[in-house]
Design brief:
Strand content: 35-45%
Oligomer: single chain
CATH architecture: 7 Propeller
Number of domains: 1
Number of strands: 33
Structural class: mainly beta
CATH class: Mainly Beta
Largest sheet: 5 strands, antiparallel
């Protein structure tokens, strides 16, 4: 058998070659984003160890959340901080517009790469009332962000800005609604599930499922689980990387809930370690604020208010132990890093981490971090936020379906491999 030849070519004009080669691009897998967006700084995992770098996008004095998206080689594509969207070079290109004056972005901003696209992304976010008067308390929305707009700076697609998903209304200022959500990897039909967790206006708490395809939400939501006594109010919900479990806490009681799911995103009644089929319920000393599964979906880490970080063994009836010396990390969301470590926040400039395999706990994993972490607060309750991701998602696949020439400028600096009749052409785009 004749050995293939290897040809190396430097691509100088990507927009021309993208048109020529866009159907043959393959890129190595990446199961988590290698860079995280904070407020004015970022965390870069590309070298293996996380390092702090500066970003050109920041907002003064916000209490909300931040997120961003990067190319396979770590090049910035866009950032979202609070209600503002920034281009890859830090220029403000768009802003969210709440339906009620005085509302603000909530504790999570989700990003769904639009299936079969390389330029478009769905942004998922909540609006919350600042002082919680009677009326509209919270609402969940999405917009489509298109990198090809505004001379490749990006912008929200006309007609796809602030599309409503769900709203929660309160009858008095004593009622409160703090919804959480989680996003799945693409299923076999290349669609994403969006799960919401909340107490609803009729007093019943529900987990709902929405389906996102290329055009946005498909059809109506499906109620996956409901609890008339749940009174759900969550700062964070997390979906396991294998898509089989949705975990969330509740600030109104001390119960951690795990909903077991089948491959269609519906409740799996064959699983669970509680009184209800498909549900695992765990009582703790205090409310659960943050939740995050490990990369193999075998352990769950939680932040318990005023206690610290707990590790739950899901192979042993979700038995749990407290992470030693984690008491100062008791008011935080939790996030899985591309190094497979678990990260959590202590204060505006301190992130800790733990290795789930060895148990090694680092109380200051990023000593060069300035005060760029953001705390979300809702009345008397609050939590430090971290950029939300789709755990276990192969982010490189965003580019595998071709790179339209109109947005190539925004997604340069990644490695391309092209296979043509036994020959491989490999080079760094510039």
């Amino acid at each position: 058998m004749k050995k293939p030849n290897y040809i190396f070519i430097r691509i100088q004009q990507l927009s021309f070659y993208a048109f020529l080669f866009c159907t043959a691009i393959t890129i190595d897998a990446q199961s988590q984003l290698e860079k995280w967006t904070l407020n004015g700084q970022g965390i870069d995992f590309a070298s293996g160890l996380p390092v702090v770098n500066s970003t050109s996008a920041s907002i003064e004095g916000i209490e909300a959340s931040a997120n961003g998206f990067y190319g396979p080689e770590g090049n910035s594509i866009f950032h979202v901080i609070g209600d503002k969207i920034f281009s890859n070079d830090g220029v403000e290109v768009d802003v969210f517009t709440p339906p009620v004056i005085g509302q603000r972005i909530g504790s999570e901003i989700g990003i769904i790469p639009v299936p079969q696209e390389a330029c478009k992304y769905f942004l998922i976010y909540t609006y919350l009332d600042t002082d919680n008067p009677p009326g509209l308390s919270a609402s969940l929305w999405y917009s489509e962000f298109d990198l090809s707009l505004n001379d490749n700076q990006g912008g929200i697609t006309f007609g796809k800005r602030d599309l409503p998903i769900m709203a929660w209304s309160n009858a008095s200022s004593d009622e409160n609604f703090l919804p959480a959500f989680a996003i799945s990897k693409p299923n076999v039909e290349n669609n994403h599930f969006l799960f919401t967790v909340s107490k609803e206006s009729d007093g019943t708490s529900r987990v709902r499922k929405y389906i996102f395809d290329t055009d946005g939400i498909v059809g109506s939501s499906v109620v996956v689980y409901e609890n008339q006594n749940g009174d759900y109010e969550s700062f964070e919900a997390d979906l396991s990387p294998d898509g089989s479990m949705l975990a969330f806490g509740n600030f109104n009681n001390n119960v951690l809930t795990i909903v077991h799911l089948d491959s269609d995103g519906n409740i799996d009644p064959t699983m669970g370690a509680g009184l209800e089929d498909g549900i695992t319920s765990i009582s703790l000393d205090n409310p659960v604020i943050g939740t995050e599964f490990t990369i193999n979906s075998d352990y769950l880490y939680t932040c318990v208010d005023a206690r610290g970080i707990f590790k739950h063994d899901l192979s042993n009836g979700a038995s749990f132990t407290m992470v030693e010396d984690s008491e100062d990390f008791s008011n935080t969301q939790i996030e899985l890093g591309p190094d497979e470590n678990i990260y959590f926040v202590k204060n505006p400039s301190t992130i800790g981490s733990i290795d789930p395999v060895t148990g090694s706990f680092n109380q200051d994993a990023l000593p060069d971090l300035d005060e760029s972490l953001i705390r979300f607060s809702d009345g008397s309750k609050g939590a430090w936020t971290l950029p939300d991701q789709i755990d276990g998602y192969d982010y490189h696949n965003v580019f595998n379906n071709g790179i339209p020439s109109e947005c190539c400028e925004a997604v340069t600096n990644y490695e391309i491999s092209i296979e043509i009749v036994g020959e491989i052409i490999e080079e760094n785009a510039t």
